[in-house]
Amino acid sequence: MDHRSTPATGRRGDAPAAPRSRPEADTPGPTGLDGRLRRPGLVRRLRRTLLAAVVTAAVVVPVSAAARPRIPAPPPAVLPPPTASNLDRAYEANRADAAEAARMAAAHGDRTRAAADRAMAAPSRRLLSYDGRGPGRAVEVFGDLAHADRVAVLVPGSDTSLETYDRFRAGALALHRRLGPRGAVLAWLGYETPGTVSTTVLTTGRAEQAAPLLKAFLHRLRGVVGPAAHISLLCHSYGSVVCGRAAPGLDVSDLVVIGSPGTGASSAAALRTPARVWAARGSADWVAHVPHTSLGLLGTTVGFGTDPVAPSFGARIFNAGAAGHSDYFAPGSASLANLTRIVLGDTSEVTRA
């Protein structure tokens, strides 16, 4: 039921209701002393209206991927838990899976997916896992994971699949080049990401499915790199919702959200993680205009709560320069420089926003 005040006009056929007498001091006026609009209720209604419009657009705008037939591929290789000594075996087995997936996709008539699978099967690729079914999942390693003492795990946002993987991979490569020989980067496409134009991108559903997968992966990763390695979790866009859901008790040193629509938590403390929590948003990132709120709508919860770069959230805010939504790992950027410092543990050198 809506309990907001309505004009006291009475019901049809009734005498008009007399206005309630309230002290003038208790009645909020439409403007403040400076003449600016001061209606918190109006702001909340506008936010809700905007979110409802986005949901409606996501429902009515056709999404071509929804009608796309599933692409055949072999099931993932069954391998023992990874260790420093068996990584090469895992890489070889997963490249073989990618090669078979390429053959099956080509026979199915999907040249785009066949090309993506074929690129993954190249001898230089180090795939810790691979699943060519559906949108596809993969974990790729950059660097010498068995001997790295600084490890970054990248979690992508919406519309990341095997077909679009190259843009995600480019960011991982850029970070690895900055880290040097002591660092390794893992591109974790370990979940089915939501489409940008879809209802799933507005809710925590995909993140809730992904969070236990991420937690399990990080647990296995610790078995490879050992207890002394410094692991940083770098979460972009909707990936920050995934990390927010996985955060409680994670064995990582730093949790970083960039271009985040929210984590699903009201504050850094509410993430219940022992890790340092960092956040950044570039000045050209459109996500700044997304309402940072959450509400029940159409039987689900829409939105992800407090803006992670707001002072009230309590994260360590660092400078991301003029980065747009897809630019946080751009070579030469302020954001990449600061991400590198965080991963290397040079936190005193991180430039704050």
**Radius of gyration of CA atoms, rounded to a whole number:** 24 Å
Biggest sheet features: 8 strands, mixed
Shape: globular
Share of residues in strands: 5-15%
Q: Tally the helices: what do you get?
A: 7
The total beta strand count reads: 10
Helix/strand-derived class? alpha/beta
Helical residues, percent:
25-40%
Uncertain segments: 1-38, 52-68
Topology order in helix (H) and strand (E) letters: HHHEEEHEHEHEEEEEH
Summarize the structure.
The protein has 353 residues and is α/β, with parallel strands linked by helices. It is built from seven helices and ten strands.
Describe the secondary structure blueprint for this structure.
Layout: H1 40-60, H2 87-107, H3 111-120, E1 127-131, E2 137-142, E3 150-155, H4 165-179, E4 183-189, H5 205-225, E5 230-236, H6 239-246, E6 254-258, E7 276-280, E8 295-297, E9 300-302, E10 316-317, H7 334-344
Parallel strand pairs: 3-4, 3-5, 5-6, 6-7, 7-10
Antiparallel strand pairs: 1-2, 2-4, 8-9
Question: What can you see in these coordinates?
Answer:
- This protein is an alpha/beta fold.
- 30% of the residues lie in helices and 14% in strands.
- The strands form 2 sheets. An 8-stranded mixed sheet has the order 1-2-4-3-5-6-7-10, with helices on both faces. It has a two-stranded antiparallel sheet with strand order 8-9.
- Helix 2 packs antiparallel against helix 3.
- The longest helix has 21 residues, at 40-60.
- Mean pLDDT is 85; it is low at 1-38 and 52-68.
